[in-house]
Amino acid sequence: MTVEIFWQLIEKARSTAGTNDNAFASALQTELEALSEEDLLLFQFIYEWYEITIIKQPSHLMWSALVLINGGYCTDTYGFAGYLITHGREVYEKTLANPDFLATLNPKKDKCNYKEVRRLAQKIYMERTKTKIRAFKKIYISVWNKELQDEITQSLTINPEKRNRDWTLDELKGQFPQLTQVISKQGKK
User: Which pTM does this prediction carry?
Assistant: First the structure.
């Protein structure tokens, strides 16, 4: 399992599911079931590292973009990370570099939250190998790959601008003009 194959699996599942998030988990499960046990562990590792990369950015502007989308609050951080990951590499990477890129997804209030595939590779591995959670954790730690972690981290461009937690919604609209335009159109429907 490589980073490239990880994203190919995500893209293939997204292509199969289209915009239907409910169908995405099923499509990804089909892809993951064809993997070896080692690749399932590595897929889980890569997914979690991309997830951690989002979550460990509490001062990043993408969180302010999410506040704007939701009209004043953030939703589950793991869910938001899953939302970005399951929309593919381009969405994930471009959102880290420029949170206004979220506008291309036409995000809706309380819908930027997707946790259905968070532990999917782990679940498939555990069912296939009849492994319990404690044993899985020991096995999983053994595949922790510093080189792969560094490859992922070094490949990402993260916008260095920090969010201001005191920004009002009107100030956020100025920070994210494309996102504001999308949200305004949704409100007129």
Answer: 0.89
Q: Locate 128 and state its tokens.
A: 């296939």
Cα–Cα distance for residue pair 177/173, rounded to 1 Å: 6
| SS3 label, residue 162 | strand
Helix (H, G, I), strand (E, B) or coil at 128: helix
Give tens-digit pLDDT for 133-167.
889 888 888 877 788 888 888 888 887 777 777 88
Q: Which of 109, 106, 99 is nearest to 63 (CA)?
A: 99
Per DSSP, the three-state class of 27 is helix
- Give the separation between CA 126 and CA 135, rounded to whole angstroms: 9
The set of residues, in sequence order, having a beta carbon less than 8 Å from that of 178 and lying 6+ positions away, is 100, 101, 103, 104
Q: Are 137 and 34 in contact (CB under 8 A)?
A: no
